[in-house]
Design a protein that fits this description.
- The chain is α+β, with helices and mostly antiparallel strands.
- It has a single domain, classed as Butyryl-CoA Dehydrogenase, subunit A, domain 3, CATH 1.20.140.
- The chain has six helices and five strands; from the N terminus they run αβαβββαααβα.
Amino acid sequence: MIAGLSKAATLYLTPVLTLTAILLSLFAYLAPVLLLHDRVSLLNVTPSTALLQNASHSAVDGPSAFLGVRAPAQKNDGSINCTTPTLNPTYDLSALPNSAPKLLLAAPTQATPVFLGIALAFSIIFFITFTLTSFRHKMGEKMSARLDNAIFQRLSAWLGFFGFMIGITSFLILRMWFGKAADDFNDSIILQGSDAPELIANVGNAFTMIWVAYSFYAVPLVISLSKFNVKASK
């Protein structure tokens, strides 16, 4: 019974985990411009008096900005304005007050969106090849024999590994980048004193989605690399 549950988890659960990981990564990569405009972002600037009053978060009315990998989205008077996404974004934060330290919210380098795009491409190919390999016994003798080829499975494992490493490394760099940007922004607001705009910067929830995504991604990757290691040791 335990063997049957283990086989079922490997066959059915791991492809679902991989697909979930890809979807969460795509949401974090495409937001907030193409989808989830004011719900998912890497960094958000929202109205608040918390920094001015040295108290717990207190929301007020005013403009907001939501920064993503490829472009920002701005919210003012209830309407959301999204910038055209590019691989080399320049953040338009015109909705924020002129006294806000906008220069501290610089976009990451052009290489970051490119590397994330490569990581997502590798992850999608790994998902397809891993799923095909898992269900090869249901695809006829010829197709099963091709998918059982050691070179094919080795290539699938390496694509998954590189997709994982490139993706999580890029997002770790982004986390440090936007974490410092949020700290510097808030410090600048505090230094302005009573004349400062009522704003606060926080690291967005997209990073939580990413950590969950790569936790899911690690499961099929470990399985794939384990199979590769077992075959290599024979």
